[in-house]
Amino acid sequence: MSVTKVGVIGASGYTGLELLKILINHPKFQLSYVANSEGNTTLSQLHHSLNKVYECDVLKADIDECASSCELVFLALPHKTAMVYVKPLISKGLKVVDLSADYRLPQDIYEQFYCPHTDTENLSHAVYGLPELFRDELRSAKLVANPGCFPTSAILGVLPFMSRRVKNTPIIVDAKTGVSGAGKKLSDNTHFVNVNDNLFAYNPLMHRHAPEIAQKLGVDFDEVHFVPHLVPLTRGMISSIYIQVNSDFDAYKVLEEFYKEAKHIRVCKNPVDMKSVAGTNFCDIYVKRKSNMLFISSAIDNLMRGASSAAVVNANLMMGFDEDLGIPNIAYVP
Asked: How far is CA 176 from CA 208, 227, 314, in A?
């Protein structure tokens, strides 16, 4: 059976670990290169949970070594760092799935919310990695910009109703996420004594995922009112979304029809919860209407559908495989 050799650069973080867990058991991907910024360790030393599961050396990231080992590489790196690797990897013929924000937005919007972009050539032909919007484009992509976790949850919830939304009215997204979404690096906000028994909003209305939501929905930034909250949970994300709609329609049937072919969307008749999607690539969506107000609730695992399993789905499409090949679909319940 032919396999595709793949690598992971950025193996130290939470999303890197989730990528490794999926790739180790993937029937068509062979994990051939694992690296981080330091190297000189092994996988079981880096992630004790993989001891007696899978062992390999973790190398210091090197462009040439990666290119000689892989056909496709996942970059689980911070923004700004990722684009340093993308340009030479693409030039050497590799396919790249980038989990950072570096290729998700047009240059002007990216630079307004992040930093100067140093690889505008590749920025112009990166494909946004949301199969429900760009499945055909992903099949021929060389560079995929994996979506942010909050935008994934929000966009998938709102998308089926955009044609029924009252134009120029607010799209209100009230979202909650587990602390793993902030990554491993400790901060005042993510310190245990601050998060435990606590709940708070951060960077309300101006969070840098808001322009990503607006841009992919095709609306002005001022129409998206996005407020993220940090909750004392390890993983999971739920978005409560409010939009104004017109005309008479059955919202549940609209949702069902829109996603009837989607393998990783579950339309729910009861309000969704985080636990039912934990450890999977599913996005569960619930909708309820009152007069002209539509309430949409969508739940994902921020580390999986919001990052790593979504990245493997994109890689599957890039390599011509079934999109759900090797993707976990049984939740961590209870």
From this structure: 15, 9, 25
Q: Mark whether 56 is an active-site residue.
A: no
Predicted TM-score (pTM) of this structure = 0.96
Alpha carbon distance 7, 59 (integer Å) = 11
Residue 222 is classified by DSSP as G
Q: One-letter amino acid identity for 252?
A: Y
User: For residues 214 and 223, is the Cβ–Cβ distance under 8 A?
Assistant: yes
Angle at 153 between CA 129 and CA 208, to 5 degrees: 80
Quote the strand ranges of the chain, DSSP E.
Answer: 4-9, 29-36, 41-42, 57-60, 72-75, 95-98, 127-128, 143-145, 171-177, 200-201, 224-230, 237-244, 265-267, 283-290, 293-300
Distance of CA 113 to the CA centre of its chain: 18
C-alpha–C-alpha distance, residues 264 and 251, integer Å: 19
Residue range 193-214, pLDDT digits in tens: 999 999 999 999 999 999 999 9
Marked catalytic residue, from 66, 70, 149, 283: 149
Q: What is the pLDDT of residues 100-142, one digit of tens each?
A: 999 999 999 999 999 999 999 999 999 999 999 999 999 999 9
pLDDT in tens, 240-278: 999 999 989 999 999 999 999 999 999 999 999 999 999
* Residue 240 exposed, middle or buried by CB count within 10 Å (0-12, 13-18, 19+): middle
What the block records as the tokens of 157 is 């919830």
pLDDT digits (tens, 9 = 90+) for 220-237: 999 999 999 999 999 999
Cα–Cα distance for residue pair 209/313, rounded to 1 Å: 21
What is the β-pairing status of strands 283-290 and 293-300?
antiparallel
Residues 6 or more apart in contact with residue 29 via CB below 8 angstroms: 3, 4, 5, 6, 23, 72, 312, 315, 326
